[in-house]
């Protein structure tokens, strides 16, 4: 079931205190909750609950990792 989230709503999914960890890239929201590298909602200084569209282009893996992540919905 895909959902639409605003940037404000996305902030709730920070991976802390039992919350799921979501990140947005290019308007698509991905669930990184089960990804070991995103434990506690943090990954190489980046925080879950945010739009990481610009950040991911500077990462060594670029957008290749997105194909392995569950899509939650859209950032609106």
Comma- or semicolon-separated keywords:
76 residues, alpha+beta, Flavocytochrome B2, Chain A, domain 1, two-stranded antiparallel ribbon, 11% helix
Please summarize what this structure is.
The protein has 76 residues and is an alpha+beta fold. It has helices at residues 7-10, 53-56, and strands spanning 3-5, 22-25, 28-31, 42-43, 46-47, 71-75.
Q: Could you describe the 3D structure shown?
A:
The chain has two helices and six strands. By secondary structure, the chain is of the alpha+beta class. It has one domain (3-75): Cytochrome b5-like heme/steroid binding domain (Flavocytochrome B2, Chain A, domain 1), CATH 3.10.120. The strands form two sheets. It has a four-stranded mixed sheet with strand order 1-6-3-2. A two-stranded antiparallel sheet has the order 4-5. A hairpin with a 2-residue loop joins strand 4 (42-43) and strand 5 (46-47). The two termini are 16 Å apart. The model has no long low-confidence stretch (mean pLDDT 95).
